[in-house]
């Protein structure tokens, strides 16, 4: 996929046999047999000049170390995978641009599937205590043609943006919601059901 987009990709793998298999599967990727935590190797491959670096080894500690090295050596964007959620704040503090946690990602996908209405994306925050949802307003929603300040949303809910066709609106209390608007919402997980009912037309 990256090759089709014209993005040059390098992949570092310690296991020589895995390198050979990866090279066969990804003919447009430069596969390097080496240790991704080796500073000399990273410098030799020009890590300070690359646009993005992704640390996805099977070990959280290695990913944390390599992400730190990449940021220290000047990589523009760094992404790291960690399984232990208590590492996420550490990675954020050292300047890692994005952290991927398989458990949270999987939970988000499951919740998106089981949620009602026209939710098109969902992300968990603070280990599931809060959520960011992106939804499309139903034509039957009770919130249509009402100012946001009268929407009766839960107290800690924040409407981050309204996307209307090609226009992005930073909302205020007097803004009016229209059918098929795309809404970005920050809310506590405990309030999501009520929010869904309001935007999907189920609020009484």
UniProtKB/TrEMBL annotation:
Give UniProt keywords alphabetically. Answer: Ion transport, Transport
Q: Biological process GO terms, please?
A: potassium ion transport
Asked if the record carries the keyword Cell inner membrane, the reply is no
Task: Identify the InterPro entries for this entry.
Answer: NAD(P)-bd_dom_sf, RCK_C, RCK_C_sf, RCK_N, Trk_Ktr_HKT_K-transport
* Gene Ontology molecular function terms on file: monoatomic cation transmembrane transporter activity
Domain RCK N-terminal: start-end pairs: 1-100
PANTHER family xrefs: POTASSIUM CHANNEL PROTEIN 2-RELATED-RELATED, TRK SYSTEM POTASSIUM UPTAKE PROTEIN TRKA
Record protein name field: Uncharacterized protein
Question: In which organism is this protein found?
Answer: marine sediment metagenome
């Amino acid at each position: 996929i990256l090759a089709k987009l014209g993005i040059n990709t390098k992949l570092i793998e310690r296991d020589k046999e895995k390198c050979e298999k990866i090279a066969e599967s990804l003919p447009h990727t430069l596969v390097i047999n080496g240790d991704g935590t080796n500073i000399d190797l990273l410098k030799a491959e020009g890590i300070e000049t690359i646009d993005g670096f992704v640390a996805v080894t099977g070990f959280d500690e290695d990913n944390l170390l390599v992400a730190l090295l990449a940021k220290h050596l000047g990589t523009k964007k760094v992404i790291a995978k960690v399984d232990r959620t208590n590492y996420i704040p550490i990675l954020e503090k050292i300047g890692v641009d994005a952290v991927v946690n398989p458990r949270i990602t999987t939970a988000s996908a499951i919740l998106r599937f089981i949620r009602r209405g026209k939710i098109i994306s969902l992300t968990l925050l603070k280990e599931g205590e809060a959520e960011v949802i992106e939804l499309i307003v139903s034509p039957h929603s009770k919130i249509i043609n009402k100012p946001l300040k009268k929407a009766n949303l839960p107290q800690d809910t924040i409407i981050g943006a309204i996307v209307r066709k090609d226009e992005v609106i930073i909302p205020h209390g007097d803004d009016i919601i229209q059918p098929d608007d795309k809404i970005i919402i920050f809310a506590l997980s405990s309030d999501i059901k009520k929010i869904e009912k309001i935007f999907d037309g189920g609020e009484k």
